[in-house]
Amino acid sequence: MVQAAPLAVSLGDPAGIGPELIAEAWMRRERELLAPFFVVGGAGVLSAAAASRELSLPVVQIGCPAEATQAFASGLPVLGKQDCTPAFGVPDREGAALALYSLSQAAELAVSGEAGAIVTGPIAKSRLAAVGFSQPGQTEFVADVCGLDHKDAVMMLAGPSLRTVPLTVHAPLSAVPGLITRDLIEHKARIVARALARDFGLTLPHIAVTGLNPHAGEDGRMGHEDSAVIAPAIAALQAEGLAITGPHPADALFAAHERDRYDVALCMYHDQALIPIKTLDFDQGVNVTLGLPIVRTSPDHGTAFAIAGKNVASPGAMIAALRMAGECAMRRAAPL
Ligand SMILES: NC(=O)C1=CN([C@@H]2O[C@H](COP(=O)(O)OP(=O)(O)OC[C@H]3O[C@@H](n4cnc5c(N)ncnc54)[C@H](O)[C@@H]3O)[C@@H](O)[C@H]2O)C=CC1
Ligand SMILES: NCC(=O)COP(=O)(O)O
């Protein structure tokens, strides 16, 4: 049987909920059928985070990723001695530097093939920016490590109820109309179609594209982008053989009877894509980056500083991210 390399997990911000959820996921590894994973750095952070949830977490220091597979049964494998002493809910520079180190090393290990995938713990982008993180998000950071253009790394949110892709991501709403181009829609839709086939076994996924404006522009009465930019991009993609429809009015596209009709919704901006998934699937939502030479997933939520260390954060999305990374890594290691 083919076995993928262990998954590399980056710690996330030590003051956030990431470390406690990684610890919780390890405790539930058997019942959740999780593939072996290891964390880069933060042994002390993980122990403290586990203690805050009244978990007695054994941590096993490993010298290389390959040791994680065997160590995983007896403890949470941690690679490297980098660490800090976090105060839950109070992010600081030292913690941000550790989060950046962990992210960077985990991504490099996935690129080198020593790790089967990277699962990123949540970071606060503004905090990491203070210690040298120059990208808008971890999606673009991982793209840089892979040597890709940012537009080739496509964010998808996936849960049991639906999958959504934001065409524009961390852009102010006022900039969105100017960023929506035929090229961008066509480029990202092609990446989505290829990645859903490669990593999710959907050979010809149905992509439903939202409009930008109310009622998808109502024939130009409520904005021109839907008819002048989005519709022609969809027509060109249909001519290439993609199963793609739209622009659909976004207000109704996420109703239950509509969701059955497509595999993924390509949305025009961040909140159009993330509100439905976080409303329907917050606790099982995974942020997965499509188009990369490596597998990268993350829970859909952020650092949630206000609840860190309080034993209330749900591990569902972290567990879902670990599970999806393991499944995609297996699929790549043994293509069907
Ligand atoms: N993948 C990542 O690295 C992400 C990072 N962020 C970052 O996180 C920081 C905080 O962002 P917010 O918008 O406040 O989002 P957030 O997801 O951290 O929190 C939003 C709300 O959901 C709750 N929440 C989040 N995760 C939860 C869980 N597992 N269980 C129970 N409740 C949970 C929080 O307590 C809060 O009420 C920002 O700096 C942002 O950049 C946000 C989203 C994703
Ligand atoms: N809103 C999604 C988010 O902030 C996660 O972005 P990324 O860090 O995964 O690029």
Summarize the structure.
By secondary structure, the protein is of the alpha/beta class. 39% of the residues lie in helices and 15% in strands.
Give a short account of the largest sheet.
Answer: 12 strands, mixed
CATH topology of the largest domain: Isopropylmalate Dehydrogenase
- CA-based shape: globular
* Spatial arrangement of strands, main beta sheet: 3-4-2-1-5-12-11-6-7-10-8-9
Uncertain runs are none
Could you describe the 3D structure shown?
The chain folds into 2 domains: 1-149 and 292-336, Isopropylmalate Dehydrogenase, CATH 3.40.718; 154-291, Isopropylmalate Dehydrogenase, CATH 3.40.718. The chain has a 12-stranded mixed β-sheet with strand order 3-4-2-1-5-12-11-6-7-10-8-9, sandwiched between helices. The chain is built from 12 helices and 12 strands. 39% of the residues lie in helices and 15% in strands. The protein is α/β, with parallel strands linked by helices. The two termini are 13 Å apart. The chain is globular and about 60 Å long. 1,4-dihydronicotinamide adenine dinucleotide binds at residues 17, 122-126, 138, 287, 298, 301-304, 306-307, 313-314, 317. This is 4-hydroxythreonine-4-phosphate dehydrogenase. It is found in: Cytoplasm. A divalent metal cation binds at residues 170, 215, 270.
